[in-house]
Amino acid sequence: MTAPVGAFAGFWSRLNPRERNLLALLVVVAFVMSIGVLFVLRSDSFMESEQRIAELRRGINLMQTRGAVYQEKLKEKAERESMISSDPIEFAILLEEATTATLGDKKTQQEEEKPPLELGDGLIKRVYSFELRSVTLEEVTNFLHKVEDQPGHIVYTERIKVRSPSESEDRLNVEIDLATWEMAKADAEDERQEEDE
Fold this sequence. Notes:
The chain folds into two domains: 1-82, no CATH class; 91-189, 2-Layer Sandwich (Alpha-Beta Plaits), CATH 3.30.70. By secondary structure, the protein is α+β, with helices and mostly antiparallel strands. Strands 1, 2, 3, 4 and 5 form a five-stranded antiparallel sheet that branches. Helix 2 packs across helix 3. Helices cover 57% and strands 22% of the residues. The longest helix is centred in the first third of the chain and has 50 residues, at 17-66.
């Protein structure tokens, strides 16, 4: 094992510094050229791999936007949208029915409907604020259950603030914001488009 190293050391020592530099440069150029030749020879297979990857991406994209998966997503979206009513809910009537059924002679106070908020794609969010005074916790829960249980409409309590006027009583003052989503009717959308034009 020492003989080849010794022979290389003897060969290297016989070269002058200029020849050593040229020999080292020759080795570096040979290495770079061999790498370049490998890349040139393999470039066709690299291009084929890139084309296969691009075809797979196109296939996945088509499957997600036009295939069975996309059709399934459209059905799910239609089902979600069908749960949202296009008929506006009358909060005043809804609250009157709920108070009569659950609170007896007590009434809601400071009722106010906030301006509707358009969320896009024909979806409108409406919020209605009111107060209940001198009610028990059980009455509040029964009242909210009655209000939120509306077939064909999504009604939920967006905000509730509970205060107790005194520590000794079980009566509460409650501020409530009810919210609902509605789909805009096609006629209203057509009228808006005509006004814009």
